[in-house]
Amino acid sequence: MDQNVNLTGLPIKKGHAWLHKQTLPILKMAFVRHIVAALFYVVLLERSVSFAQDQLTPTFYDQTCPNVTNIIRGILLNAAINDPRITASLVRLHFHDCFVQGCDGSILLDDPDTTEKVALPNNNSARGYEVIDQMKAALENVCAQTVSCADILTIAAEESVVLAGGPSWKVPLGRLDSRSANRSLANTALPGFNEPLDDIKAKFAAVGLDTSVDVVALSGAHTFGRAQCFTFDQRLYNFSGTGDQDPDLNETLAARLREICPTVGLTNLTNLDQTTPDVFDNTYFKNLQVEEGLLRSDQILFSTQGADTVGIVNDFSSNQTAFFEDFVESMIRMGNIRPLADVIGEVRLNCRVVNANISIAATDAEDARLVSST
Q1: CA gap 327, 215 in Å, rounded
Q2: In the 8-state DSSP scheme, what is residue 57?
Q3: When you count CB atoms within 10 A of the terminal residue's CB, does the N or C end of the chain come out lower?
Q4: Is the dihedral of CA 225, 229, 235, 236 positive or negative?
Q5: 22 pLDDT band (50/70/90 cuts)?
Q6: DSSP per residue over 264-279, as a string?
Q7: Residue 225 has pLDDT above 70, yes or no
């Protein structure tokens, strides 16, 4: 509840002559505004309770916003014309959202004190926020206050995979948006591109995912997209402080990468999959078998001696259908990650800002306009 509202619903603001008869219309309008806001949040609270009790379902918006997927798909198609990277970027954005507080759209928030956008795994690398904004705006025009930003991001990830030639699936829906982000958790919960396999597995286990099939299948999303030099250049010049290149990196690929990244720390881009960079297929796993995984976190799935991930890489390399099937199951499992606490959420009107901030700003602006007109 707004801290400037007493139990009668009337604003209490120092310096205003509230009892003056000329301000009575203002009181009435403010009272109505706060009653409407209260009813709005009651509706959200009721949906929050339902969200906590019920399972996600692909039919969640069938009655309230039946064209949700078509609207998201149309905007994605337009975005991909000028930005072929956007499909991979949106899948990554969904991944980075789900590993922090569950799939709640927290990565989309702009709060300067808590935003996850500047956490180390996201800063100057996570992208696609503007496309999500476009999707949200389009949906608000058609079915206002209905589709959560978390669901938009989840649908956009599935549609991105399909657009790149990958599998489709029925996306379970009905998520709510969180009212806070968690930068510190983003810094620790997301798997890193240089981490050992055991550390990556531990982070998957921490959010309830499988440490073998889920790890390999979801890593397979690196079958498309780009990476900046700083994410892999340590494999080229000074691996583990030896001054040499990573012994698990194909020498021909290493020579090619040194041309792209002549020094360390650059933001130059190269393809995660050097063979079919914009296609969602199983070539990624074939690359690992010949030591052409770009990131260290990719190559260790195959090069870690005795790891249970090696056999899965081999299976996916020889059987694209098996990869697609397991990828779909893993994406659905990841999409089901829920916040461990505070399941009460909302449907944000703006994916970058929680609704309370929007309401306060709108109320203050309207109060100022009304007072200036008296």
Answers
A1: 10
A2: B
A3: C
A4: positive
A5: very low
A6: TT---EEESSSSSTTS
A7: yes
Closest-CA residue to 130 (of 348, 356, 352): 352
What per-residue confidence (pLDDT) applies to 308? 98
Active site residue 96: yes
Q: Which residues contact 33 (CB under 8 A, 6 or more apart)?
A: 363, 366
Q: Which two tokens stand for residue 339?
A: 């916040």
Which of 166, 244, 218 lies closest to 335 in space, CA to CA?
A: 218
Q: Read off the pLDDT of residues 275-289 as tens digits, 9 standing for 90 and up.
A: 999 999 999 999 999
pTM attached to this predicted model: 0.82
Distance CA 335, CA 373 (A): 50
Structure tokens at 7: 């139990």
Token pair, residue 286, equals 């074939």
93, two tokens: 């954005």
The catalytic position among 16, 34, 94, 96 is 96
Distance CA 340, CA 306 (A): 33
Band (pLDDT 50/70/90 cuts) for residue 241 is: confident
Radius of gyration, alpha carbons of the chain:
24
